[in-house]
Every structure is written in C-alpha cells, then in structure tokens.
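User: For documentation purposes, I need each entry recorded in a consistent format: the amino acid sequence on its own, followed directly by the corresponding structure tokens. There are two entries in this batch. Please keep commentary to a minimum and don't merge the entries.

Assistant: Recorded as requested. Entry 1:
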Amino acid sequence: MTLLHLRDLSVSLRNRPVFRDVSLSVEPGQVVGLIGPNGAGKTTLMRAALGLIPAQGNSSLAVMKPRVRARHAAWMPQNHEIAWPVTVEVLVTLGRIPHLGAGQAVGAADRAAVDRALAQMGLEALRHRTATRLSGGEQTRALIARTLAQETPLVLADEPIAGLDPAHQIATMQCFQDIAAQGKSVMVSIHDLGLAVRHCSRLILLAGGRVQADGTPEQVLTPDNLRDHFGISAHFAQTPQGPVFQPLEVVR
C-alpha cells in the first residue's frame, strides 16, 4: 500500500515558483530523507503534500478529510514551540486526539501509546515536568514524542533533529528506523548528510525547483550532485559500523 503519492505537484509563493512537477511515492518500510540546499523548498513540499498550502497537481494526503488524514499521517513542523504550560505527558497525549471520538476520554490504548512514545524519546523521567520549562532540546524531544504517539502509518517531520545534542540526534534517527521496520514510513527533512546517509534508506534531493535525484544514499550523494547542488566535496566510505559521510571542502 502506497502511503504517499504525489503527481506533478507544483507550488508558487508570492508569485515565485518554489518547485514544479514533483512526482514521487512513499511505500511502507522506508525512512526517506528529504535533502537539499537552503531555500530548495523542502518545508513547502511537505506542507503541500499534507494539503496545508495551495498547490497545483495531486497529493494523496491533501484530498483526505482532516480527521482521516490525521490518522494516516503525523506532522511535526519545523517550528518547535510549545504554547501552553502543560506537562510533558499531557502534551504527548495530544497526539491521540485523532483517535478519540467527540467527548471520548483517553483510554488504556491511548495511555499505552503515550507510554511508548515517552520511552522512545527517553522522557519517562520528565513526564510530569511542565513542558514550557524544559530546555529547547527537551521540548523538541517532547514534540517528537507527541508525533509518535499519534501512531500513524506515515510520519512527516521537518528538521526534527535540529537543536538536539548528538546522542539524541542519533537516537531519534534510530527511532525512525524502528518505525520503518514495523512497516510504517517516515519522511524527514534533514541537513546533516552524515546522519541521512547512516539512517535513511532513501534520499530525495530537491534543488533548483525540481527533484534532482531519488534513490539510495550512494545513488544520490554522488560527487557531481554534491558539487552542483551543495557546492561541496565529501568523503563517502563503507565501514563495519555502516556508511560514513564527511564533507571535506567548499567547491566553487
């Protein structure tokens, strides 16, 4: 079952084309890294796919009714701001709203989903803390946990590891791999190409208003693509611990 299908999707903002004719599908079991230079339109693509902004073309998510879409795809936007002084547990429980009927109380299945999400993000000890009093990195992890508690077949996360320390960056990307291993999928926009190489099964390179490459990390992060779209050279090697990618220098 295809979890996301885009066909000839195009977006213009303030009369300026952002990207055009993007077609792609996301299947179960994938961690898809959406990569590209600043301003390439990665955030816009994810928002358009969800039907949050006007777009030309077709998105299988955008045509869904909001409640149906919320059960199919969870969305973590780039803005990691918590507006209300609720506990971490309450914040994460908000991820269960799409599964509750009108006036329905949180049940055992919902509490179990919240417990799993807190454990995945290492937040059990912080569950009764006020979310707005946490550090920026802890708040980000709480918002990721809220997204995970939604327990949807597809997760779309816009730069979720920005601002996290290295250990929690790795743990979050490993969590996404665990989700994919369950037959679900994650699409994550990411600037850290080293983590993308190690944890994403597929990369989509968006640049110049189009999808420039789509495939495995080895297929996408070629010397030509790195030079033409990122302006860098890099060292790419296979090790017993997995692939290693290290940018080396700016290429003019």
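Entry 2:
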Amino acid sequence: MLDLSFVRRANRTVIDRRLFAWPFVLTRSFYLDPERPSCLSVIVQTGSGAVHGEDSLAQRLVLNPGTAVCLTNQGATAVHRAEPAGLATETIDLRVAGGASLEYLIEPRILFPDAALCQSVELDCANDGAALIVDAFTMHDPRGEARVFRELTSTFCLRRSGSEPLVIDRTRLYRPTADIFRGYQAFGSAFLVLSAWHDLANLQALVTKALGEIPGLYAAASVLPESTGLGVRLAAQDLAGIRTAFARVSAIYRQALLSVAEQQTAVQRR
C-alpha cells in the first residue's frame, strides 16, 4: 500500500500524509523543474523490484488545491509468472483538486512468460485541475523462445469533480499469440486531462507532429469524450521509442500548463 497526500505551503507543494508498506519505499522528494518551482518530484521505489504471482498492490494519491506533483518510480518493473489460477492486481486511486496538476509517469511493465496482471487507474480530476497519466508494457522471454504473458487487463476511468465516469478505457489480452503484435514489442498509452482553458485541437496537432518524428513509432492522438483532454496510443519496436514518446508528450503537457497559467495571470491583471 502507498497512500500520499499533498498540500501547498509557502508557495511549494509538500507531502502532508505519507503512509506506505511493503513493497513500497519512499525517500526524499525534490524540486527539479526550474519553470515550475512549486512542483514536487516524487520517486517511488519498491523493495521487491518486481510484481510476483498473486501480489495485490494499491496506491492512493490525493492532490489538494494548488498543488503540483510529478511522480515516477525507479525503473521498469518486471511482472513474473503467476500460478495457473493466480493473478497479480494493482489498484491506483488518483484525486486531483482544483488548480492542482499531476504527472503520473510510472515506468513500463516487463511481462515475463505466463505473467498475469490486472491493473486499474481511477482518476477524479477537478474541472480546473490537470493530469498526465502514462502506462506502458513490453514482453521478455529469458529463453528467447518468443513466449508471451498469460493475461493483461488494464482499465482507466476518468471522473471530473466526482461526476459519473466520462471516460472508461479498457484493454484485455488473454493468452495472446505473438503474431497479434505485428512485430511491435512495446506498447503504451497516455491520457492528458486538461481544463477548458486549453486548446485541444492545437495540442492534438502538436502531439501528432512530435510523435510523428520518432522513427519506428506507431502513434495516434485523439480528443477524449466531453473534450476532457487527449488520449494517445503508442506501439514501438522497443521501450526506447515509448520513453521518447512519453518525454515529448510530457514536454507538451508542461508547456500547456505554463501557457494557461500565463493567460490566467493576464486576465487577473486586467
């Protein structure tokens, strides 16, 4: 279990609730973004370094008004084989209040043969909040025999200010064969949840152009239902392509936040 809450104090984001248990480990946090000095960068580590068999993992992040958080982990996480009836689960609950922004930049999962993982991300983001959520996986067979994982189920659910779900995105792969991946080895998605201040058509064009410049990457960006933001799908030959794509999407997201902050400041001065 990992349970963190963030508040804004003295013009900076700080942690005001820090609860964690095995396998999660949390050490010092940092302020690394010179353009957003109030943004707190948090690196979550795991004592096990992997997801095993029937592990059951849970995370909750609560961003109170005006906070800014960038959360990642120490590296790609291996998901090892599960018993025939076993399934590892991961539940992630993200709550972003008004004026807050979250970058949830978790490193990809590496799915070993016979791995089985069910993960769900629930995001409740205020109408004037913002969030960037990424997720990715690749496959690895230590014997080099092109064996694949047993099961992967991934669900993303978006609410705004406690509303009914506006977006439910679900992927399920059960006993896939290698041929369905069409030669691609790494896959990812990104959800940019933004406020009404943002020009989604322009951002979609920027994301499409930036991703189109990455060699060997298959990518698409579309506007989410109710104009809540953008959804991005990725397929690449390896994790390097996915990581490059996420870096470019993150840069566009951050610039969008800065541009809107400047617009809001200009309006307030009038």
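Summary note for entry 2:
The mean pLDDT is 94.
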